Amino acid sequence: MHPLVPYGWDADWEAEFAPFAEQGLLPGRVVRVDRGLCDVVTPVGTVRADTEFVVPRDPMKVVCTGDWVAVDPESSDPRYVRTLLPRRTAFVRSTSSKRSEGQVLATNIDHVVICVSLAVEFDLGRIERFLALAMSSSSGEALLQTSALSRESAAQPVVVLTKADLVPDATTLSYLVQDVEAAAPGVPVLTVSSTDGDGIDVLAAVVADGTAVLLGQSGAGKSTLANALLGVDVMEVQATRDADGKGRHTTTTRNLLAMPGGGVLIDTPGLRGVGLWDAGTGVGQVFAEIEELAAGCRFQDCAHTAEPGCAVLEALDSGVLAQRRLESYRKLQRENQYIVAKTDARLRAEIRKDWKKKGAEGKAAMEAKRGRQR
């Protein structure tokens, strides 16, 4: 068996690497990146390599944890990463800067594990946001970008409710799971307790056939969960603050580790902000019931605000659709449109045109109202 099989090496990667093997380079997978240097697991062990030769102008193409690369052979000193193999998937979020940039969090992943702590009151809107990021993978959009090597289905999301041992009773836990399932239609929702070990075997079975990335806020229990899945205390953990249940950023880098039962795990630092990055399809999938309702609206360009014959508003009035869901849908749609418009001049022009149209309509309505008052 090839030494890299436990890290996800397969026949497709071998074929992709063939031209570089002829050059005498070694295949490897990046397990950690740190200030221009990275740790790469290769057939001869884990090596330290410089990324100087693959520093692009595009921040979306920097070396990242999960990448497959070609590195210099053992005789080279210093050793360099010479090239990146085409990524099958790349989980990307919008940066907090004002520039139109995305930040690659992990690459070549098959499962997106969204960790949510049951020790504090969770935010369903935040779960929907994470899912919108993850579920954009199925269309190969910029968020979870796919290459020619991508499998038929890209990374699959799963919501994991951690610290289940802190929930007082089974009935309460059942209600909490139902709330999350309503916000994550069609997505597996699992409960685990890293302390008691409950649910760990189920999750391990789900992620055993590929690479899984753990995502969530600080204090969600990602590092503790990683240790439970790995069977050893590899990741350092800290207690959450008693005042608000928030974590202290135990994990500061993204780390890739092979799991004993099969599969590869990428642990990530806690995410304070989760900005969308071209996640239009993901938003549509997370809110599939609203998209289905919208298909029944009288007007094709219905904004679902006050239009006559709006099926979405009718569902809202009848109680079929929850107000919170509609508000979350609108918010993520607006945010995603803003992000896409940063790099799409045509869309920016359409948005400005729409603003002018609405402004003119509002002005005309005010003038008509004043005329009636006179």
Automatic annotation (TrEMBL):
GO terms for molecular function: GTP binding; GTPase activity; metal ion binding; rRNA binding. The keyword Metal-binding applies. It is an enzyme of class 3 (hydrolase). It comes from the Bacteria. GTP binds at residues 162-165, 216-224. Zn(2+) binds at residues 297, 302, 304, 310. Binds 1 zinc ion per subunit. Gene3D superfamilies: P-loop containing nucleotide triphosphate hydrolases, Probable gtpase engc, domain 3. Residues 99-274 form the CP-type G domain. Its EC number is 3.6.1.-. Keywords: Cytoplasm, GTP-binding, Hydrolase, Metal-binding, Nucleotide-binding, Ribosome biogenesis, RNA-binding, rRNA-binding, Zinc. CDD domains: YjeQ_EngC (cd01854). Its main location: cytoplasm. PANTHER family: SMALL RIBOSOMAL SUBUNIT BIOGENESIS GTPASE RSGA (PTHR32120:SF10). HAMAP family: GTPase_RsgA. One of several proteins that assist in the late maturation steps of the functional core of the 30S ribosomal subunit. Helps release RbfA from mature subunits. May play a role in the assembly of ribosomal proteins into the subunit. Circularly permuted GTPase that catalyzes slow GTP hydrolysis, GTPase activity is stimulated by the 30S ribosomal subunit. Belongs to the TRAFAC class YlqF/YawG GTPase family. RsgA subfamily. This is Small ribosomal subunit biogenesis GTPase RsgA. It comes from Streptomyces sp. SID12501.
